[in-house]
Amino acid sequence: MGKTLAEKILSWNSGEDAQAGDIVIARVDLAFIQDTTGPLTVRQFRASGFQRVANPGRTVVFLDHAAPSPNRELANDHRLLRQFAHQVGAQLFEVGEGICHQLVAERFASPGEVVVGADSHSVTAGGLGAFATGMGSTDVAVAMALGKTWFRVPESFRVCLRGDFPRGVYAKDLILHLIGSIGADGATYRALEFTGETLSKMSISDRLTVANMVVEAGAKVGLFPSDEVTKGYLEEHGRGQGYRPLAADPDASYERTIEVDVAGLEPMIAKPHAVDNTAPVQELRGTKVHQVFIGTCTGGRLEDLAVAASILRGRRRHPDTRLIVGPASTSILIQAMNAGYLETLVEAGAGVVPPGCAACLGVHQGVLGDGETCVSTGNRNFRGRMGNPEAFIYLASPATAAATALAGEVADPRGFL
Amino acid sequence: MLKGKAFKFGDDISTDDIVPGRLAPLRSNLPELAKHVLEDLRPDFVSRLSPGDFLVAGKNFGLGSSREHAPLSLKMAGVGAVLAKSAARIFFRNAINVGLPLLICDTDAIDEGDELEVDLASGKVHNMTKGTQLASGRMAEVMLRILEEGGLVEYIKKYGDFELP
To answer: Model ipTM?
Structure first.
């Protein structure tokens, strides 16, 4: 019997013939923490009696979620993490260097690897063909120390993509459509494996956006096979040696197959307060919006800033709608500067925050007021997510977000391209 | 045998509902964080909870962020176990890792305030108020072992490694 991508990678890393439903102990190729989950990892690491990490070069600490630190408590959490990184020899990414998931994609993850992070959006690296998944602080503490962890090998859903993206429709619209159709628990415990003719036309940026949000359908991992696009991305980042061809076997067994004709999609939006509460943007046109946030590990990459700049070029945000832009990493920030995107966005009225998670999780840099509405390119719109349970969050593509900033109300980007 | 009364919640309770991101400054002060558990949904939850009471929810409990502070704070606030129709996978694993029992069962048969007895060994839930009994789904053996030790830190201190049965 052939293997799914999930079975294949977990077989390589466990040395077992891993099949869906098995429990295996797998080698961990990369383990990372960030500043809101990491302090607990450090405490659990020490409480377990560990002194050393198994693989310091592949153990990473990111200061991104509340960075620069907004208060004394979180500044002290940063202090603890810097001390820990120094103690065990882990790599440290400082305040302003970027969001963990983006930096994992740029610097670390390769096809066929097992990646665990103390953050649910660790699934992002599945866009590069890594078995990447989010875990709690204690699981990651143990994975860092032992260089391995246990997994239940997931059953897989195959998501077959065909057709070309229509003008104004992007990877974000695809994943919102998918989550809306299968539901917030539609893929709980499952691997979502993407395949089909559309893949060759999807950039790594697109794939990372899709993989990033599979957890919003409950999935353990969202896997893309590796191909020339993956190879090109790794080479561009000086990591061509990490490339390996990776595809599911033709006779692999899937629990379910979901077909999506990408050509039939339109711009989508997730309404408050659930990610699966989706609708076509057209249905929400005219909804007043106070804040637009373009950034995060879902929608803060170079391609995202490029499309936003193309819509905002020579125009100005609506006077009642503030616009916050957060590039996902320093390399994206520099490229966006060199390409002129940042100048365009700032001239259009954007406030630019340093690379990091920014307004996404409600600790700083864009907390909403009572009764306010935000359109975000992020991945979660739960009640209270952006720091105020009396606020309303809509999730959309960077193009829809940019069009909304111009209109001051939810707007279809196809009218602005 | 665990005993307590049921506090009933709905479907899709996220870890942002349990410990919202705005409380991130309290994450290194767990006793303080535990005073705020679920306060956006039910401001009097912690004050009405007696140690050992049960949090009874619908489907997809604990979705969203991987923050382990969610099950830790529930445990520190006094929740004896979570009973849900289904649970998000990271939350499920975190709950076991911090020694908070989580049982999957048909929670429609439990109402707010019902007195329950839960036998972790057999997975049986006795509803003393209604005189009924519910079976719960069996968790993986490795999770049962971790739970028996009181959590992953205790398990690792004892075995030093993962032992698959």
So the answer is: 0.98
Chain A: closest CA distance from residue B79 (Å)? 19
Domain of A338, in residue numbers: 268-415
Write down the pLDDT at residue B146: 96
Identify from B9, B27, B139 which residue to disrupt to test chain A contact, counting A C-beta atoms within 10 A and taking the largest count.
B27
- Which residues on chain B are in Cβ contact (under 8 Å) with A136? 66-68, 90, 93-94, 97-98
Strand residues in A281-391 grouped as ranges (E): 291-295, 322-326, 350-352, 373-376
A39/B140 Cβ within 8 A: no
Q: What is the pLDDT of residues A2-21, one digit of tens each?
A: 999 999 999 999 999 999 99
pTM of whole model > 0.95? Answer: yes
Q: Which residue has the tokens 């711009």?
A: A267
Do the beta carbons of residue A402 and residue A305 sit within 8 Å? no
Task: Please check whether residue A410 is in contact with residue A390, taking contact to mean a CB–CB distance below 8 angstroms.
Answer: no
* Surface-to-core class of residue A134, CB atoms within 10 Å of its CB (0-12 exposed, 13-18 middle, 19+ buried): buried
Q: In degrees to the nearest 10, what's the CA dihedral of A340, A341, A346, A352? A: -120
Q: Are A402 and A315 in contact (CB under 8 A)?
A: no
Nearest residue in chain B measured CA to CA from A365: B22
Q: What is the pLDDT of residues A248-305, one digit of tens each?
A: 999 999 999 999 999 999 999 999 999 999 999 999 999 999 999 999 999 999 999 9
- Give the integer Cα–Cα distance in Å for A42 and A404: 42
In total, how many domains does chain B have? 1
We report the CATH number of the domain holding residue A394 as: 3.30.499.10
Tell me whether residue B68 is in a domain: yes
Partner residue facing B60 (CB), from A49, A185, A385: A185
Query: Which of A25, A139, A367 minimises the CB distance to B164?
Result: A25
For chains A and B, CB pairs below 8 A equal 148
Residues A90 and A9 in one domain: yes
CATH of the domain at B98: 3.20.19.10
DSSP per-residue codes, A201-237: G--HHHHHHHHHTGGGGT-SEEE----HHHHHHHHHT
Q: For residues A116 and A150, is the Cβ–Cβ distance under 8 A? A: no
Per-residue model confidence (pLDDT) at position B139: 84
Pick the residue from chain B with its C-alpha nearest to A151.
Answer: B142
Flag whether pLDDT at A361 surpasses 80.
yes
Q: Is B68 on the interface with A (CB under 8 A)?
A: yes
Q: Do A185 and B67 touch (CB under 8 A)?
A: no
Contacts of B72 in chain A (CB under 8 A): 40
- Where is the domain boundary, A197, A227, A261? A261
Of A70, A134, A148, the CB nearest to B66: A134
Instruction: Collapse the DSSP code of A127 into the 3-class scheme (helix H, G, I; strand E, B; otherwise coil) and give the result.
Output: helix
Specify whether A151 is located in the same domain as A300: no
Does A240 share its domain with A346?
Answer: no
Give chain B's radius of gyration (CA, Å): 15
In which residue are the tokens 């558990």 written?
A: B37
Joined together, the tokens standing for residue A166 give 């229509």
Q: Answer for the pair B15, B91: CB distance below 8 angstroms, yes or no.
A: yes
Query: Nearest residue on chain A to B89, judged by CA atoms?
Result: A189
Percent of chain A with pLDDT over 90: 100
Selection from A134, A147, A118 nearest residue A41 by Cα: A118
Contacts of B27 in chain A (CB under 8 A): 36, 39-40, 77
